[in-house]
Amino acid sequence: MVSERDTIIIDAGTTCYEIARQLPSDFKGTIITHSAPAIQQCLRLASARTICLGGELLHDSQAFIGEMAVAATARLRAQKAFIGAAAVRPDGLYVDRDLELAAKRSLIRSADQVIVVAAAGKMGRSALVHLMDFSPVDVLVTDAPPPAEIAAALEESGVELVVAQSST
Question: Does 37 reside within a domain?
């Protein structure tokens, strides 16, 4: 889903971290991220450009958040944003706390294409804070087909569903 010279946004979280891990060592594009682990992965990409968003570091999620992250993101544009969520439900995406909302929404606004990456275990799960409905989402990538009610909501919103195959 990523061309060798794309400008991409990588959100924080374990699923998005895997996007950074899977970038080939000869990737020549630009990575914009507020994820400390993704930044660490970018150190191995000698031909890539990495733009790190500042802000307050949340130690448990290892993400930079707050007005500094939002302000930095607002001046940037990427072809694709890979966004994580704590839960995917028929009415949209959820996160565990509202501290993440402003940064995530800013990342979403800064991309031409929004790709949500969510493991099947997040389908139908409960999480505290509603991030958004499916209207800004272009693609949802997961590792197993979602429950019927989520699949129907995705289809109704025009979201492309990609069920990835395991690389192991």
Answer: yes
Parent domain of 128: 7-163
Number of domains into which the chain is organized? 1
Q: Can you give the three-state secondary structure of the chain, one letter per residue?
A: CCCCCCEEEECCCHHHHHHHHHCCCCCCCEEEECEHHHHHHHCCCCCCEEEECCCEEECCCCEEECHHHHHHHHCCCEEEEEEECCEEECCEEEECCHHHHHHHHHHHHCEEEEEEECCHHHECCCCCEEEECCCCCCEEEECCCCCHHHHHHHHHCCCEEEECCCCC
Q: What angle do CA 129, 131, 135 make, to 5 degrees?
A: 145
Query: Region 92-100: what's the mean pLDDT?
Result: 94
- 54 domain residue, yes or no: yes
pTM of the model: 0.96
